[in-house]
Amino acid sequence: MFTGIVEELGEIVAVENLGDASRFLVSGPVVTEGAKHGDSIAVNGVCLTVVDLEDGRFSADVMAETLNRSSLGALAVGSRVNLERPMALGGRLGGHLVQGHVDGTGTIVERKPSEHWEIVKISLPADLSRYVVEKGSITVDGISLTVVDAGPDYFTVSLIPTTLALTTLGVKQPGDPVNLEVDVLAKYVERLLGKDARPLTATDEEAIA
Fold first, then answer.
1. 3-state helix, strand, coil in the chain (%, to 5)
2. What backbone torsions phi and psi does residue 177 show, to the nearest 5 degrees?
3. What kind and span of H or E run contains 66?
4. pLDDT tens for each residue of the chain, 209 residues long
5. What is the pTM of this model?
6. Ranges for the Lumazine-binding domain (predicted)?
7. 96 by DSSP, 3-state: which?
8. Which residues pair with 110 in a beta bridge?
9. What's CA 19's distance to the chain center, in Å?
């Protein structure tokens, strides 16, 4: 389990094509400190298993399902990636609960810079839109962000200078793909409600309040 608070901006050092999978060699001296074979590290929001470790680098195998479902297949040598180690039990939850299981990909649509922040509009697959709400949480390339505006096929986020400087969202441009993971709590609620799920009415909201 992760929190969506990026610890390090790493770099893809090598990509090995294994036919129905790929092996990435990633530079990340911060996240590899104290790591061992079999540990998990999130790469652009995708939970990967450490295969080998050496000199601040780690290798991880990425199967075809992950390559097809995420934007990892577009990574090449020199690509910058967001890295995060799993949250320690008893640690602070700085972002929100993130599994590292990508639900789909979006695309940077536009960027609107301001003096102290930047608004970024990102396309949203239709089957994920029901899980995204204004002021709710969403993970973009492994970054825990708050939704500013939620549309039928897009959402916007506001990025502070720290996020722009320390993550891939500081350099990605319109047309670039990003990994998306919606709030897992919304999916569990939908599953539990099942076919009897219906929108809340004003009476329901009053009862909850």
1. 20, 40, 40
2. -80, 155
3. helix 64-69
4. 899 999 999 999 999 998 889 999 999 999 999 999 999 999 999 999 999 999 999 999 999 999 989 999 999 999 999 999 998 777 777 778 888 999 999 999 999 998 888 999 999 999 999 999 999 999 999 999 999 999 999 999 999 999 999 999 999 999 999 999 998 888 888 889 885 555 555 544 454 44
5. 0.87
6. 1-96, 97-193
7. coil
8. 121
9. 26
